[in-house]
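Minutes, project check-in

Agenda point 3 was the complex the collaborators sent over. CS summarized: two entities, 730 residues total, and the question is how they sit relative to each other. Sequences were read into the notes so everyone works from the same version.
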Amino acid sequence: MNATIVPVELGDRSYEVSVGADLLATVGSAVADLPNVSRAIVISDETVSALYGEKLLDSLREVSLPATLLTFPSGERNKTLDTVGALLDGALRIEPPIDRDSVVVALGGGVCGDVAGFVAATLLRGVRWVQCPTTLLADVDASVGGKTGVDHPTGKNLIGAFHQPSSVIIDVQTLATLEESDLRGGLAECVKHAVIRDADLLNFIAESVDAIGRRDPAVMIELIAWNVAIKAAVVSADERETSQRAHLNFGHTVGHAIETTLGFGAISHGEAVALGMVAANELSLARGLIDLPAANRLRSTLKLLGLPVRRDGLDVDKIWSAMQHDKKNRRGVLRMVLCTGLGKVEIFDDVTEPQVRAAVTLLSM
Amino acid sequence: MNATIVPVELGDRSYEVSVGADLLATVGSAVADLPNVSRAIVISDETVSALYGEKLLDSLREVSLPATLLTFPSGERNKTLDTVGALLDGALRIEPPIDRDSVVVALGGGVCGDVAGFVAATLLRGVRWVQCPTTLLADVDASVGGKTGVDHPTGKNLIGAFHQPSSVIIDVQTLATLEESDLRGGLAECVKHAVIRDADLLNFIAESVDAIGRRDPAVMIELIAWNVAIKAAVVSADERETSQRAHLNFGHTVGHAIETTLGFGAISHGEAVALGMVAANELSLARGLIDLPAANRLRSTLKLLGLPVRRDGLDVDKIWSAMQHDKKNRRGVLRMVLCTGLGKVEIFDDVTEPQVRAAVTLLSM
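CS then shared the predicted structure for the full assembly.
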């Protein structure tokens, strides 16, 4: 089976992302090919393990690698330190006991990758992990960059670690079972990548809407590989998010605040990011950084994909307050990524409270 | 105030260990001297914070750095993921909210350093930390190497991360309030460093027993700086414990198993390591790696320091079983560090169950 390989260059932490059809059957041999592997600890949520757990375990059995499946309840609300604690407990009670040559295999969407990656980062002070994302959002976002972690009541992803995977294996066949809303969530990140780096990708997405809706494997492979390459270039240049990696937060400052304010689960991550991008472009418009056609191009693409560009009843006070908690802020200064032309963004730390309030207010008008 | 500075060379994670008298008063300026510091989060256990918390907070106030003190209940039994979770929760609820320029300051013994370092490793996916050890064990052991983490019912330090501090500040005045048993615990690690690297240190310890008992500042500074330098050389050569850093586990394979078997709290870490070193040397003797005078030299030094060289009622079956859980094992092969002459050790992976059982049995005879 042919796969498109996208390298992620991170010095001695470099790895490859493989994108193809029916790749889950190859995970066993990929894990066994890593140096000195003693066993696999497969971590998956209950939904995904029911769909693809056996297929993955079969591939590990085929290469005679001891494997244990640990599951946790699905959903962002379970992306907590308690879930990580329960999985660490499960891993540490495996008999015979695991060792540092054990490899965690994450099978699932973004929540699963974040949780399982954090388990791998902290188990025996760090073991290797292989990521098998099963949602478009995880394919194009969580698959690159090594961010792992969990949420806290005061905000998303506030507890975690940077821990790069040894390998990422994306099987586009898993997208067949993806809910429409989750497909849209991934597409929101694809649009983000286009806006911050490559306007051509925006064209490709708009032209491929029908094929994407059918989850056509060839189109999904091209879409995912393109997005992984964009994210890999950004992360390679700035692994620890001291400079341009922050560009990936486009739409996320307001987006995260909307998620926090509404409560996890009341809005999907992708919808929140779509609204966040619209708000960011309203700010860009107000500051004269982009023109109206560019702002409208984002809005029309989001609409074409079924993503929201407005929402009733947003609480501007609460959203502003939640934005103060964003961990990307430094010394209390709000940092926002704003579009300066389709395919280009810059970081601004002089965005004012009235500007933010005006942009967020427009989302409900 | 003059301090002895020992560099720990770890590339872009290098830092310095300062050893001196009355250095707690200088912590504030040391933290403020780090680049871009927004605030301090002081983490200490209840015992140590009552003794030295105000002094440390005063030094932070002097440099006008915002500081918050978070405490947790003292003792190894509280070195758990739950404690880390509670401290993360406390840190994330500080107002105004912390940011990535916040610095954790760990004030306390080994448990505090391990817990606070792990909090720093996982807070906002990693913030800097400054370590202020207050026990001899933490001074000579935990101060170098960046190992952080917590215990699990199946074994010690099974959950954690490597996270180097930005600076370590050792104030020997804090040893004035140290319990005798805790002093002995630190001395066990000093003896270990001597056995694995430098027989001269064994002489210095034996000759300085009285001054050490009085916690004479000048002698303690020399003792600590010497030990830190030994450990720094080992860790610099092998940060991630793939080769010679394992030498530091001398006495710990059996020692950890004894601690696990008796239950945390029933025996001090130092006492367990002393017994572990005696058992390791029994094994060396049985394999002909060292002669009887060398083995006796270790035993007599430990006795001189009030450390145990035998213990009644050890359960050999349970100790052997606990040794199987040691995270340093690879693919189920027991790895042991054995002395091959005072000042020298090697790693062996061919130690048999009968050899271990015989050596452990001798501890109760």
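Noted in discussion: The CA atoms of residues 230 and 344 of chain A lie 13 Å apart.
Follow-up: revisit at the next meeting once the mutant set is ready.
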